[in-house]
What we know:
The chain is of the alpha/beta class. Helices cover about 30% and strands about 30% of the residues. The protein contains eight helices and 18 strands. The protein has a nine-stranded mixed β-sheet, sandwiched between helices. It has a three-stranded antiparallel β-sheet with strand order 2-3-4, covered by helices on one side. Strands 1-5 form a two-stranded parallel ribbon. A hairpin with a 2-residue loop joins strand 2 and strand 3. The longest helix has 16 residues, at about 15-30. The chain is globular.
Amino acid sequence: MTTSFESAANIDTPLAWRWIRDIAAATRRQRFDGRIERDGVRLEVDAGGGWRSDARVDAEAAQLLSIWLPWCVADLSHGPQLIAQLGQSLDGRIATVTGASHYVTGQASLVHLHRTRALVDAVVVGAGTVEADDPQLTVRHVEGDNPLRVVLDPRARVCATRGVFTRDLAPTWHLVAAARAEQAAADRARQGASHVSVKPLQVDAAGVDPADVVALLAEGGCRRILVEGGGLTISRFLEAGQLDRLHSVVAPMIIGSGRPALTLPEIETLDRALRPACRHFTLGEDMLFDVDLRRGAAT
């Protein structure tokens, strides 16, 4: 990133966020030419998300642009782009043994999560997360549109009283095993949950194939997808090679026991460990690790 100071105007956080949303929308339509201008202030963005401006850029705005522009300009022509986000302690826990997770990370990280939601078409959560946290999956802490809410629930076990089914805050997909889809659809109809669509999935002994979930969302027009939780759901998408990016937010907290952030097959030697390219940023007292899973670390 390089910046020159030829303009008297400043790029502050609200302007940076509007630009990020504008660029994300333009690249989704393949109509972004690498330049955006508002009120006489110009921003130029290269194919990798690097940027420069003719205006003075506030520090918080500069970090926001640096975090999000690589994601916003990623090539969507070969299929959806998937990002996952984890909030974890220093010792790699996302919750206590009872599932308590409110809140491992701080307010700045919560705002970051809501920005992530605002930049995607769909947010995917597993049944366990909906049962434990009853999340709204909205963007109430930032300016933007609520994404499609996707509940991955093969056994159709999520309680009907959970907010994703009772609050019409955003369109919602309930993904269940094909054998349970008819009953689940009837349950949602009796509930009057007109914002919920039941979608059948093929399920085998290994469970749901994450690639099938991605394909279903792609058919529905979703180009950018957030896999938000829980840890097991994110782990399955990571193991299946479906994730393009991972945002791991680490809080200065030691829980000592509890639910791990990621659970992957065991390896015997470190040469089989994943070593993706990674950048880091501060979010209040937390640290954001922006992991590019499609690119290896520099050697």
